[in-house]
UniProtKB/TrEMBL annotation:
Domain of life: Archaea
Pfam families to which the protein is assigned, alphabetical: DUF1699
Record-given protein name: DUF1699 family protein
UniProt xrefs under InterPro entries: DUF1699 (IPR012546)
Upper taxonomic lineage: Archaea, Methanobacteriati, Methanobacteriota, Stenosarchaea group, Methanomicrobia
Amino acid sequence: MKVVFRIIGSEEDLKDVEGKEENVHFCFRPSEKNIFELVNKAPKLKRIQLPSSYQKTISNTTKTLLNMKNIKLLTGDIWGHRTDIDRFAEIEV
């Protein structure tokens, strides 16, 4: 199934997230604060995707919060996508 993800390339991009986002891909290593900010800004959030190397650094506290909010934490990469051209990408989940 293909799903449209909002691409977050930096903390600056995180400031532009709207409340209607359901799927987000982080291209940078998000801190706990970044993830909590995203969860608070986007109440409809269903999925967060991270590259595998970043996935390993997510704390158990963050994983528990996402689990409590029914937000799936996915592993995956987006190669060659330019956020200056399009902030969204269609990804196979």
